[in-house]
Predict the 3D structure of the following.
Amino acid sequence: MTALFTPRPRSSSLGGAICAAAICTALIAINPAIAAENGPSTPASATTPSTPLNDFRSQLGDVRKSLEGVNARIEEKAKTIETLSKPEAAKQQVEELQALISQTLGLVADNGEIAKLGASALGYARSKQEQMRSDTKFTPSERQALQKRWDQNVAEMVKATDELAKASNEFTQLLKTVQTRGDYAAEVLEVENADEMVTVVRNLAGDLRGASEGLKLFIRSLTPPES
Amino acid sequence: MRLRFARAILLAAGVGLAGCDWHEETGFVEVKKSFPVFATGDSLILNSTTLDLAARSSLVVQQPTGTAVIQLKHGETNRKLCEFAVRKNRVVTVTVMATNGSLRCSVQS
């Protein structure tokens, strides 16, 4: 079981203690007994019920925004990399690039939050689809209308989860390219050819621009399912 | 009184969170399946995560850095297929293939 967070090593004792204290405080704060003392609370959104579909839709919108931000930063990195002249700077740029791509890949990885929400939302949509097929409560026309909406919803959910899997695959390939170029550059540096090392990393700019164009197309196609 | 209490909670939580690091070091494992179907009741496990490779031929899973293990689960028994290192912000590709009726791994980092 993976820990939710870890105390920073440099201040493990004090930081950990403060951290633990904060958690206890937070747990007390969300204790229903104490919450009840403060009277009934207003739901965050009275109009939008929390369903797996709504949660996924909202998260997918956030992922889309994050991807747009990452794309801008990838383009920025490509520009910076083209102007490199020193091995130390080249090494640092590759490490920063790996961290940036990893952060994004973490969002769309198959065990990431959005993938889990997607699976849960798809399961929910399929169960509603099944429920409408065996319904006897509504009139035939109502049932047919609801069936049609859920069929459409399931199709959109399948498309969205497939797009996420595609994104996960594309970022994996990009991270592999960057890490392999970085490894090669390190090997070149080890045989004492600093200039060539810089050239190897500068050539990455082309790959990054290609990835950025691919990402733009992908972001356009990543549409959260309609309500 | 309630307002003061709420402020105290927020302050304590803020100070506490400053001592926490919410992100541990992680890398990624790309698991590829190069055989058509699993035998009935078989599944692959990466550390403690069950890999759903029934409908797909590859998955990308984020994992904490360190040693990772892929096992084949058959009923109640687990058999270790391979062990490899997961490094910070890097991808390690593990291809699981069937050779002479049994599964084995090939690791590329």
Observations:
- The first helix of chain A runs from residue 12 to 29.
- Residues 51-221 of chain A form a domain with the Four Helix Bundle (Hemerythrin (Met), subunit A) fold (CATH 1.20.120).
- Chain A touches chain B at residues 1-8, 11, 14-23, 25-26, 28-29, 38, 95, 98-99, 101-102, 105-106, 109-112, 165, 168-169, 172, 175-176, 179 (CB under 8 Å).
- Strands of chain A lie at 6-7.
